Amino acid sequence: MGIFTLERDRREGGEAADILTRTRGLVDPALRAAVEKLPTAMRRVAGYHFGWWEPDGSPATADPGKAIRPALVLAATHALGGRPADAVAAAAAVELIHNFTLLHDDVIDRDGTRRHRPTAWRVFGTTEAILAGDAMHSLALRTLAQDTHPAAQAAIRRLTDCVVELCEGQQADCAFEQRGDVTLAECLAMAEAKTGALLGCACALGALYAGAGEEAARAMDAFGRQIGLAFQLIDDLIGIWGDPAVTGKPVGADLAARKKSLPVVAALGSGTSDGAVLAGLYALERRLTPQELVRCASAVEGAGGRGWAQSESCERMAEAIAHLADAVPEPSAADELLALAELVTRRSH
Predict the structure, then answer these.
(1) 138: Cβ–Cβ under 8 A, 6 or more apart, which residues?
(2) What pLDDT, on a 0 to 100 scale, did the predictor assign at position 10?
(3) Which long-range contacts (CB under 8 A, 24 or more apart) does 325-330 make?
(4) If you average pLDDT over residues 84-99, what whole number do you get?
(5) What Å distances lie between residue 250 and 129, 173, 229, 257, 301, CA to CA?
C-alpha cells in the first residue's frame, strides 16, 4: 500500500460525515430540480423514496441515505485537480441511477422497508414504483445530456454501460436463488457487477470531470469496484447479523429470503458439517422459523463464512488503495476518497 495507509481512525468518521454533508448541499438541489420535472404521480413516488415527502406530498424528515456515490464523484474530481462544483451534474446522475436500482430491487426482493419506512412499492404499488424507477433512469441521462461540461458525453457512455452491468448483476443475483451450485467466483462476479460497477463508475466520472486521462479513469474505476466488493461483503454480513434498529430490516432478512450472499456461498462450499446443515435448511420449501434462522446464522459462522467475508473485505480494501495510488500519487489529495472508502467498509456488523 506504500505511503497510503488505513490507520485513519482519529479523523475518518468526522471527515467522512463532513464530506457527505457538503455533498448533500451541492447535489440535493440538482436532484430536486430533476425530480420536479417528473409527472405528478411519479414525482410523488420519487420524492417519497428520497425521504423528502410523505405519501400525500407533505414535507417529511426521513433518512435520505448517505449519498456515498455522489460524494465519490466529487471527491474523485477534487483528488485529480478538478473543481467539485463542476461535477454536480455527474454526481446527481449517479445518485439518480442508484435510486432507480433501489426502487426496482425493492420490488424484485419484495422488501418491505427501506431507511426505516415502508418501501415505495408498498405505499404506491408495484407498477408505480417500477415506473418511477424507469423515469429516474431517464432523468439521470437527461441530466448529463443537458450538462455543458466537456466530459458529459463520455460520462453518458460510461453510465449507460454501467447500467447494463448493474442489470446483469441483478439478474445473476436473482438466478442464484434458484440454484444450489453457485460458486464463490460466480458470486464475487455478481457482486462486482451489482455493487462495484456503480461505485467504480462514480469514481471514473469524477476523474473525467477533472480532465484526467483514460488511464487515470480506469484506475479510479478499479478503486471504486474494489470498494464496492468490500462494501458488499460487509453489507452481506449486516444482512445476517445486522441490528434491525440500525438497518431498518428484520433480523436475518437475507437468510429468510434464501439469498446466496457471499458469506453464505462461502459457507455452503466449505465442505464442513455446518455447511451441510446450512444447505439442508436452505433446501426447505417453506418459510424458515425464527429458530431455524438463528441456526442458519450459526451455521454460516461455524462454516467459516463470516470470518472469510471479514478477511476478504480487508483484502479488497487493500487492492482499492493500490489502484488509488496509481491514479493519485499525492497522498494528501486522496484523503477524502480514503475517508469515504473507510466509511462504507467499517459499518457495524
Answers:
(1) none
(2) 36
(3) 325/1, 325/2, 325/3, 325/4, 326/219, 327/79, 327/80, 327/207, 327/212, 327/216, 327/219, 327/220, 327/223, 328/79, 328/80
(4) 98
(5) 22, 20, 23, 11, 19
Between 12 and 133, name the one with better pLDDT: 133
In this prediction, residues 27-41 reach a mean pLDDT of: 95
In this predicted structure, the answer to whether residue 198 has a pLDDT above a threshold of 90 is: yes
User: What's the pTM?
Assistant: 0.90
Distance CA 40, CA 100 (A): 17
Q: How confident is the model at residue 248 (pLDDT cuts 50, 70, 90)?
A: low
Three-point CA angle 158, 35, 66, nearest 5°: 70
User: At what angle are helices 184-191 and 152-176 packed, to 10 degrees?
Assistant: 140
Q: HSE (CB half, 13 Å, CA atoms) of 149?
A: 26
Q: CA torsion angle for 66, 208, 160, 71 (degrees, to 10)?
A: 0
Q: With 90 as the cut, is the pLDDT of residue 205 above it?
A: yes
Average model confidence (pLDDT) for the chain? 91
For 112, phi then psi, to 5°, come to: -95, -20
Picking from 120, 115, 140, 133, the residue whose alpha carbon sits closest to that of residue 30 is: 140
CB 254 within 8 A of CB 261: yes
Kindly tell me if the per-residue pLDDT of 144 is higher than 80: yes
pLDDT of residue 8: 45
Contacts 24+ apart (CB under 8 A), 22-29: 22/74, 23/67, 23/70, 23/71, 23/74, 23/91, 24/64, 24/67, 26/74, 26/84, 26/85, 26/88, 26/91, 27/67, 27/70, 27/74, 27/88, 27/91, 27/92, 27/95, 28/64
Give the number of other Cβ atoms within 10 Å of residue 107's Cβ: 19
